[in-house]
Amino acid sequence: MHTGVVVGKEITKKYYGEAHKKSYYLGCSTGGRQGFTAVQSYPDDFDGVVAGAPAIDFANAISGGATFYTIFGNPGDPTYVPAGALWALIHSEVLNQCDAIDGAVDGIIEDPMLCEFRPEALQCPPGVINSTTCLTSAQVVAVRTAFADYYGLDGQLIFPRMQPGSEALSQYTFYTNGPFQYAVDWFRYVVYSK
User: Fold this and answer.
1) In a domain, 13, yes or no
2) CA–CA separation, 175 vs 188, rounded Å?
3) I need a surface site. Which of 3, 113, 141, 181 has the fewest CB within 10 A?
């Protein structure tokens, strides 16, 4: 990235006939990690850096992403919640429970940290299974676990809970897609490589 910054500044100078006045960087996730690296390695490259959601603690981030497969499992498992209707139902209930916390019912959870989502509200009545309008008790436990902090055996936080409201997209990236591919590759190419 440093080389790109140096070259970009030179191109800007030649194109505009004068040097830049300010240089800023904005990145999120791996881009946020790059922002931290840039500040530490080349502190003069930028006048300001916004490092959003920086994936700095990569091992814990990978572990956090991988844990959802252990929570939900595969299609056919009692804990599995398939993408689609049930996650739409969960999202609707998240909004039902938490949208009004900020005083405005607008389809936006202003501060997800204030939302203490309780999936038990969606539990099927006794005897109802395979429904698209409620969750089994095993699915309720799985959803509650996904919305809880993930701690290691030593009691240390590994990964914070998923934010209520994120399930609309997370159902595809974390919950229903099988093993977390980044974790599979992490173990395949980093941990077990020779």
Assistant:
1) yes
2) 21
3) 3
How many CA atoms does the CB half-sphere of 166 hold within 13 Å? 15
Give the global pTM.
Answer: 0.77
Domain membership flag for residue 186: no
Q: Which of 52, 51, 53 is nearest to 39 (CA)?
A: 51
The distance from CA 129 to its chain's CA centroid, rounded to whole angstroms, is 30
Residue 168 maps to a domain: yes
| Residue-number span of the structural domain to which 125 is assigned | 58-179
Q: Are residue 87 and residue 48 in the same domain, yes or no?
A: no
Helix (H, G, I), strand (E, B) or coil at 52: strand
For residues 161 and 104, membership in a common domain is answered with: yes
Domains contained in the chain, number: 2
Cα 10 to its chain centre, rounded Å, is 37
Encoded amino acid at 47, one letter: D
User: pLDDT tens digits, residue range 83-142?
Assistant: 999 999 999 999 999 999 999 999 999 999 999 999 999 999 998 877 889 999 999 999
Cβ neighbours for 94, distance < 8 A, ≥ 6 positions apart: 109, 115, 117, 164, 165, 167
Looking at the fold, whether 113 and 167 belong to one and the same domain comes out as yes
- All residues at 6 or more sequence positions from 149 whose CB lies less than 8 Å from its CB, including other chains: 157, 159, 160, 161
User: Quick check: is 132 in a domain?
Assistant: yes
